[in-house]
Amino acid sequence: MKTVRSAPQPGKARLTTSAMIASIAAEGQKTKPAPFGRALVELARSRSDVVGMTADLGKYTDLHIFAKEFPDRYYQMGMAEQLLFGAASGLAAEGFMPFATTYAVFASRRAYDFIHQTIAEEDRNVKIVCALPGLTSGYGPSHQAAEDLALFRAMPNMTVIDPCDAHEIEQLVPAIAAHQGPVYMRLLRGQVPVVLDEYDYKFELGKAKLIRDGKDVLIISSGIMTMRALEALQALKDDRVDAAVLHVPTIKPLDAETILREAGKSGRLVVVAENHTTIGGLGEAVAALLMRSGVHPPFRQIALPDEFLDAGALPTLHDRYGISTAEVARQIKQWL
Amino acid sequence: METLTNTPKLADRAYNIRRNALRMGEVQGQGYIAQALDISDVLAVAYFHAMRYRPEDPSWEERDRFLLSNGHYAIALYAALIEAGIVPEHELETYGSDESRLPMSGMAAYTPGMEMSGGSLGLGLSIAVGMGLGLKRKKSDARVYTLFSDGELDEGSVWEAIQSAGHYKLDNLIGIVDVNNQQADGPSTQVMAFEPLVEKLQAFGWFVQRIDGNDLDAVIAAFDAAKSHPAPKPRMIVADTLMGKGVPFLEQREKNHFIRVEQHEWQLALAALEAGRQV
User: Fold this and answer.
1) Distance between CA A107 and CA A103 in Å, rounded?
2) How crowded is residue B217: how many other Cβ atoms within 10 Å of its Cβ?
């Protein structure tokens, strides 16, 4: 039975809930504005089959940039996600390549059957691009898509991508366009951190990339958790912990070869870090792969708990649920 | 493709579609036969009077699209596709069997001429909206026909699609809703009141006609008017039909959403259909 929370103590200073579309960039961090919207405009200049569609979230998914540049190739479907994806299937059936945007919660939870039947089962070339993945909103479970990767991983025919930063998003827009078939892509929008440019990183669909090598710990991560892992390296180094970071932006199909190669190197703790519930995401995908392959390193998961997450300020919540930089470093040190 | 305007010839086509459906039903011993019989007149007019297609090239770019949203009516559409020469007649005996291209519920990847995977009810009109937008982008004059059932009116997504088709003034969409007043749990109007349907659809910006879907002359006139109507609106044909039409003992059978027909009754059904044929 649902019980109402008890009232907080008065007079205490508190962080306020972040805006719904708050940037996840830390203060002073290098960022780029709207990398998805800009990359899509660039792509659409050379590909006339690209169309943009949304369900009343054009501004909140950076699709407004595309709409401004190509108003006649932009379809506003109203606040109706089932229609959005059914209509995207219809446009794809007619030879177009829709980039359909909404929030991750609405695509994964409200419109799941429409995506399953009209896009995945019919193998339509629709790119599903969704903001507010995992815990990137302080609005509570209505806007926190903690289980989106699990749901889309379970869908046959779906390619699933969790990018880290603006540098990666710019590269993956043309890459998923070159791939024939449905794609689910987690979106970071607004002022998006730029991190991977310093690591000579290049996105390749279906490839995991070793960003940093290290001998004590192998952190396998996707999305913003790769950024957090890289940020945690300094704190780990201060405690003489030498950590490697393997970035896995393509959650499905999983780059089994690279993961097994890195996880198979003896003597390292393997930690999978993801902005997603412990159930059904990258962590369990990697665990199952290792088990199936007879590779058995010490294994830990950094992920969101299997519960409805709190509302509040994102820094507070990321600390509370163990996915802030400080918490990543603290947990790893504790496990060594 | 033939364009028949003569009612007796279309009646022959409707008879053949019903006959094909009964022959498929016999393979399974059960199925959505009553729906196939009720919608055969509409399908005869769609495939032999209204639509543009090439039987030998089901994905011909300039074809009119036909979406079967109510995937369980697949037996009816297969019957029409066989009659239209899109599916070979000999496949009829494989209906619903392992390795058949004619599964119980219609799917795009299985059957030539099947444009979508239906069955999860309420999908068709959303796809139709996207196709309608896509055809306009391509400056194609092809139309999108979508058949769906009165039970699907319970699905919210159907109204999302109806609203957006009005918004985008998709005059290349022709919806056909089969009002046979029967869904899984009982009479559709009792399961969830959906009337006044014509007024609702008109309020959503559609050109709406309500007809007796088993009166061939009325069906022909409705398709003609739907195609030629001058207003920039999507078009809906509300077709009131009789479950089991053409086989009197099936018309009267109660709870006929999914009917079981005894082995000896198939020949009786075919004989009854033959007897009722207007030659």
Assistant:
1) 7
2) 12
Other CB atoms within a 10 A radius of the CB of residue A231 amount to 17
| Contact criterion met (CB below 8 Å) for B27 and B96 | yes
Residue corresponding to tokens 């055809």: B135
B154 interfaces chain A, CB cutoff of 8 Å: no
Q: Could you tell me the strand order of the sheet in which B207-212 lies?
A: B65-68, B144-149, B173-179, B235-240, B207-212
CA distance B156 to chain A (A): 9
Question: Which of the residues of A are catalytic?
Answer: 81
CATH number given to A30-193: 3.40.50.970
CA distance B277 to B279: 6
Topology (CATH) of A206-335 = Rossmann fold (3.40.50)
Q: Do domains A30-193 and A206-335 have the same CATH topology?
A: yes
pLDDT tens for chain A, 336 residues: list them: 778 989 988 888 888 877 666 678 888 899 999 999 999 999 999 999 999 999 999 999 999 999 999 999 999 999 999 999 999 999 999 999 999 999 999 999 999 999 999 999 999 999 999 999 999 999 999 999 999 999 999 999 999 999 999 999 999 999 999 999 999 999 999 999 999 999 999 999 999 999 999 999 999 999 999 999 999 999 999 999 999 999 999 999 999 999 999 999 989 999 999 999 999 999 999 999 999 999 999 999 999 999 999 999 999 999 999 999 999 999 999 999
Which residues of chain A are within 8 Å of residue B119 when distances are taken between CB atoms?
117
C-alpha A194/C-alpha A227 separation (Å) is 9
Distance CA A182, CA A106 (A): 17
CB contact under 8 A, B117 and A88: no
**Non-local CB neighbours of A74 within 8 Å, separated by 6+ positions:** A51, A52, A53, A58, A63, A66, A67
DSSP assignment of B251-273: HT-SS-SSEE--HHHHHHHHHHH
Domain ranges of chain A: 30-193, 206-335
3-state secondary structure A118-136: HHHCCCCCCEEEEECEECC
C-beta atoms of B160 and A122 within 8 A: no
